[in-house]
C-alpha cells in the first residue's frame, strides 16, 4: 500500500490564509485533498501533506506507519485544524461538502471522548500510550476549544443536536481536567503530559517522556480554566493551586533554545522544566533509553530538538494576576 504524502510540519490555518485567500483556487485545491484524506472514522491523521494531490484509491490515510491505514488523531492539531480550515472556506465559498466533512469530524471528536471527559491521542484506540488522556502539545485543549466554538454557535451550519452534544462534551472535559490535576500532600499542583485513561494518574508516553508533572501544557490548561465564565469553587481552587505551583518552581539564570539547547546567562528567566518528578517536584530528563536523569547536561541523544524548558507559564501568570483579583482564593485553600 502506498503511504500518504508526508510533510514534517503540522497542518494549520495560518495568518496568511486571509478571507481573500480562501476565496481563491488554492484554498479549494487544499480542501479537495482534505476531503479525500478524511478517514472512515471522520477524523484526520497527522503529517499528511494537504497541499499534495488528493488521496488515490488504495492509498493509506496515514503518512508515517503503514499499519495505521485508517487511524485518525488529535495530535499536533490534527482533525481540529482540518475542521477549522473547512469552516473558514465555507464562509468564503459555501459548499455542502465542506460542511458535511466538518460535521463528520465533529462526530469523530464526540465519539472519541472517554466517559471521564478525556480524549486519547488516536482513535479508534490502538493500545499503549496513544490511549492515554493526552494533554501533550495541547491535544485535548485544542479539541475543547473547538467544541466550545461549536457550543457558542460559531459554526451556524452545525445541527442543534450536535451543538448540545458539544456543550455536554465540554462540561465532561472540564471535569476531567479538574479531576486529573495532581494533588501532592493535600495541595493542588499541575498536570502531566498524559494521564492514564482509567485512573487519571500521570503516565509515560515515548521512552523519554516519563510520568511526571509538566509545566508547558499545564500553563495552557490553567489558562483554559481561567477562561471559564462564572467559575465554580472547584475551578477557582484549581487555578490558584496551579499558580502557586508555578511560582514555587520557576528556574532563573538560563535561556533555552529548541535547536541549540540550554545556556547559562545571568539574570535570564524565568523558565520551567518540561517535566518534574512526581512527589519531589525535581526537574527530570531522559534520553531515548528511558533512564531518569536529574541533570540536563547528561542528555545526549535527546539533548536537542525537544522543548526541555518552557516560558509558557509567564503569560499564564500574568493573566492569573488579573483573574485572581476577580476570583479570590477560597478560604479553605489559602496558602499556609
Offer a concise description of the structure.
This protein is α+β, with helices and mostly antiparallel strands. It has nine helices and 14 strands.
Which stretches are low in confidence, meaning pLDDT under 50 for 5 or more residues running?
Answer: none
Task: Using the alpha-carbon principal axes, give the shape.
Answer: globular
Which CATH class of the largest domain is shown?
Answer: Mainly Alpha
Name the helix and strand elements from N-terminus to C-terminus, one letter apiece: HHEHHEEHHEEEEHHEEEEEEEH
Strand tally:
14
Averaged pLDDT, please?
95
Count of individual helical segments: 9
Largest sheet: 2 strands, antiparallel
Gyration radius over CA: 21 Å
SSE topology:
Blueprint: H1 19-22, H2 25-36, E1 72-73, H3 80-92, H4 96-112, E2 122-123, E3 133-134, H5 139-152, H6 160-180, E4 183-184, E5 187-188, E6 194-195, E7 213-214, H7 215-226, H8 233-248, E8 254-257, E9 261-264, E10 272-273, E11 275-276, E12 285-286, E13 292-293, E14 309-310, H9 312-326
Antiparallel strand pairs: 1-2, 3-6, 4-5, 7-11, 8-9, 10-14, 12-13
Helix pairs in contact: 2-3, 3-4, 4-6, 5-6, 7-8, 7-9, 8-9
